[in-house]
Amino acid sequence: MVESTEPYLALEPGVRAERRAIDETQSRRANAGEWDRYADEYQATHGAFLGDAGFVWGPEGTTEASLGILGPLDGKRVLELGSGAGQCSRWIRQQGGHAYGLDLSHRQLQHSRRLDEVAAITVPSVRATATELPFADDSFDVVFCSFGAFQFLADAEAGVRECARVLRTGGRLAFSITHPTRWMFPDEPDERGLTATQSYWDRTPYVEVSEDSGEVTYAEHHRTLGDWVSLLARHRFVLTDLAEPEWPEGHERVWGGWSSTRGRLTPGTAVFGADYSAIS
Ligand SMILES: C[S@@+](CC[C@H](N)C(=O)[O-])C[C@H]1O[C@@H](n2cnc3c(N)ncnc32)[C@H](O)[C@@H]1O
Question: Which residue numbers delimit the Methyltransferase type domain (predicted)?
């Protein structure tokens, strides 16, 4: 176990940050609880930026309308993993796609139902985990997540395998995550977040631990760019895109460790796009 030298941004009192090994079951339990607790604040803080029926790939505000990484959506069956309040899937429904949400957090899904009413666009959604998709083989044309499930999975192998299983041949997978190079830096939006303090190759998960109970209350998992490319290739995905959105001029919004101070110098988000070939 490695004690963190830097405090994670905005840690709750009584919670400490560490880097330590954690398996999929522990990770899922911790993150389900954390997202249930955090959902109200997350939606209150970021809801206007996300838009009730809006699709951004990350804190830079890069939209799917500008990136087009999912390809044509009209008439397509689309699954969003870690869909939160379903903003992205609602935007896809506006484009004519049949989008469905999936999330681990009950409270996030309650926000999704609330926004279904507000926007008058319903995203049928299910509470489940991205490593065990409750869908038949070959049932989707597109699977994606925008800062959704993928970086919360200890068992990313299972997550990508499940995407391959539910996608039809020729289907599309896309996901955004914290740019892997960001893991070298303290997660601070100011200058402190610009000095590398830990190894890029250290995959030890970031966890938050309750001082009282000793329980892990949150977990995020790091993989290098090479890890992701190899993982996709192992499951017969052909990588077609790796977008690294630039920080837009005049964009001064701070989101956790994302800010113009850092964004002008280093990428904060990576967006992968891949085709499922099913050919060995
Ligand atoms: C940063 S939020 C992003 C939500 C949404 N995509 C957005 O842009 O607002 C991450 C979401 O992933 C969900 N999540 C975390 N681990 C998951 C898992 N194993 N399976 C499915 N969803 C998960 C969380 O509950 C949370 O709603």
Answer: 79-175
